[in-house]
Amino acid sequence: MNTSRIFETQDGSHSIVSEQFGESYHSKYGAIQESRHVFIEAGLHRAAQQKKSIDILEIGWGTGLNTFLSFLEGKKRELTIHYTGVEAYPINQEEALKLNYPEMLQCEVTEGDLFYQMHQQPWEIPCTLLPGFSLQKTCQRFENLDYNNQFDLIYFDAFAPSAQPELWEKPVLEKMYKSLKNSGIFVTYCAKGSMKRILKNLGFTVEALPGPPGKREMTRAFKQEF
């Protein structure tokens, strides 16, 4: 279990500092605005241009914020989303229940309840939380998992390369490439040059996009069809 503490980011939404890794789960400039910018606007919106049923893999499930934002966006756009969240170091559930995302997003009571249900859902057991949205949380290291041609979209939201360098190197990035369907999309807040070079060598088409507040760039990549 990951030992951590809650703090308030500049947009008023909570994030958590991992004492194990010495890193926060989100930008200090705003947890919600960062997640929306990187994963929803650059990732889910683009995937939704191609299809209405989307298989999402998140590496670094963390606080569940990306999952919750994906659910809300999917509901608005009438998408069907099958969501797999991989997390090797889950946060404390009591702490998770204190996070203020439903309040900050001005959710209906039923939607807010779903955020907490996501955290209370057992690991390794797939569950349909509502029609059109299913979630399976997997408490494992991504290096130990094998997916093949399964996902339309990957949210790569692990801690920074300085904290978890092994996740940003070729063996793990190659696993992500294999996990995606042809034309699948990979998005991450990271813009490190060495990562982008590996992605290109693996066969991704790589884009540098404007980053969220406080960050100049982020990365989006597409799995090329062969």
Attribute tags:
226 residues; alpha/beta; 8-stranded mixed sheet; 11 strands; Rossmann fold; single chain
Topology:
Elements lengths: L3 E5 L5 E5 L4 E2 L6 H18 L4 E7 L5 H13 L2 E7 L6 H4 L4 H4 L4 H12 L6 E4 L2 E6 L12 E6 L13 H10 E9 L4 H10 L1 E7 L6 E7 L3
Parallel strand pairs: 4-5, 4-8, 5-7, 8-9
Antiparallel strand pairs: 1-2, 2-3, 6-7, 9-11, 10-11
Helix pairs in contact: 1-2, 6-7
Give a description of the structure.
By secondary structure, the chain is α/β, with parallel strands linked by helices. It has a single domain (34-99, 108-223), classed as Vaccinia Virus protein VP39 (Rossmann fold), CATH 3.40.50. The protein has seven helices and eleven strands. A hairpin with a 6-residue loop joins strand 10 and strand 11. The termini are far apart.
Percent range of helical residues: 25-40%
Number of strands: 11
CATH homology group: Vaccinia Virus protein VP39
Low-pLDDT residue spans: none
The figure for the number of domains is 1
Mean of residue pLDDT values: 95
Overview in brief:
This protein has 7 helices and 11 strands. The protein is α/β, with parallel strands linked by helices. It has a single domain (34-99, 108-223), classed as Vaccinia Virus protein VP39 (Rossmann fold), CATH 3.40.50.150.
